[in-house]
Structures are given as structure tokens and as C-alpha cells.
Amino acid sequence: MSIRAIFYDLDGTLRMNLPNGWHAFADFAQEFGLHSSPEDRLRIARWEHYYFAESPEIRSDRISFTDSPSFWENYSRRQLAVLGAAPEQSAELAPKLNQRMTEEYRPRDIIPDDLVETLARLREQGYLLGVLSNRSESFSGYLAERGLGEFFSLAIFAGEAGMYKPEPGVFHYLLEKAGVLAEESVYVGDNYFADVVGARGAGMNPVLLDVNNLFDAPGCPVIQSHRQIIELLERRDLWPGNGK
Question: Are residues 78 and 168 in the same domain?
């Protein structure tokens, strides 16, 4: 059975923030005296991916902090703890850092340079292309504005499925809408906890886009640029039953 469809995550994969939120936060924290090593920054980056992959912590925080300001201040407190701050220091700095992030963090919305060329080649090769995002609302307008909409046959947001990655059910929803089998599809995403774990749990073939070398031994193919997916698809040994 051959690969028929390539599905993508949106945030962090098809589009990226520059600088990353975790990087900006660590820079601001350093200005307040909390110095961070490269290892500290890797740790907070991995933790951010874990937290937003529908972790038990974020589910609990949504219940405990129902308004946006208190949620994000608590998030800053959690980030500080991951960076190694003591509880007292976290409590003191969280409001200040949350305010800095709110007022000064203005990342650029980046589309990777090699993305359009890669999508065009995949389409020419006959692959069905789609997007599955953990966003709660439609992002089709965004894809159209950035010149990406023409490449994708479907764009699914988790809010319409009522489930969020890494729940296998949201991937099954995508597959049903696309009309392809799990083993016929590849899912490309940047978040190991949401994308790799979720796609694998649904029986799909995950590929991790890891531009910052955050994850060791994810147990799936890893790429650092979009064009590398073309090379991966040519390797029949990576896809069970491909070409049979």
C-alpha cells in the first residue's frame, strides 16, 4: 500500500513565529536577573511543546484560570519554574514578565522559504495535501492570504472535530474527511507530543519537523526543512507496504 496523502500541522510547521515565544521569554527573564543556559532554553522549549499538547497541566489551568490575564500570568510562573527559578522568584517575576510579553513580544509571521516549492512538487506528484491544526476556529482565510490555500484539499481545525491533538480521534476525523487510510498518510508536525504521538496513535506515519533540534530519538523520521519530505517519500523502506 503506497502513501497517498501528506497532512501538515499549521503553527510551528507551515508558519512560524520569529523569535519563538520561549526564546523571547528567556531573554526577558535574563533582563530581570534570571540567567539561562542553552540547556535551560532547550528545556523550556520542550516544556512549551508538552504543555500546549493538551497536557494535564493546561487542562487544569483552563479550569483554575478562566480569564486570559490570569491564565497567562500563571503560564509565566510555570515557565519561570522550568527555567529554574525558586517559587518566591517565580511569584515575583511572573507578573512583570507576563506584562513584558504582552506589551513587547511582537513576533514576525514567517512562512518557510522552501514551503511553497515543496507543496507544489508534492501536488505535481499526485499527493493529496491537507492541514490539521489544534486551533479552535477556521484558518482557511489565513492560508488563502499567505498564498497556501491553493495547495490543500482540506483544512481541518480541531474545534470543528471537538477533539484536540494528540487525541487519535481528531486524526481519525481528518482521515475520514480526506477519504484515505491511516497507513496511506504521512503527518508532518513540529510538536513531538501533539503531532508525533497523536499521529502514531491513529496509525498514521509521523514525520517530525525539528528545526531547533529539540527532540532526541522521536522514533520517526526527522526533517529540518520542508524540502526534505521529498527525499523521505522516495525511501520505500520508511513506509510499511509502500509500493506493494
Answer: no
The whole domain housing 48 covers 20-106
For residues 156 and 140, is the Cβ–Cβ distance under 8 A? no
Residue 226 has pLDDT above 70, yes or no: yes
What is the count of structural domains for the chain? 2
How big is the chain, counted in residues?
Answer: 244
Q: Could you give the angle at which helices 38-51 and 68-83 cross, rounded to 10 degrees?
A: 140
pLDDT, tens only, 200-211: 999 999 999 999
Asked whether residue 87 is domain-assigned, the answer is yes
Q: Are residues 11 and 32 in the same domain?
A: no
Q: Are residues 126 and 54 in the same domain?
A: no
pLDDT for 35 beyond 70 = yes
The upper half-sphere exposure of residue 105, i.e. CA atoms within 13 Å in the direction of its Cβ, equals 19
pLDDT computed for residue 38 by the predictor: 93
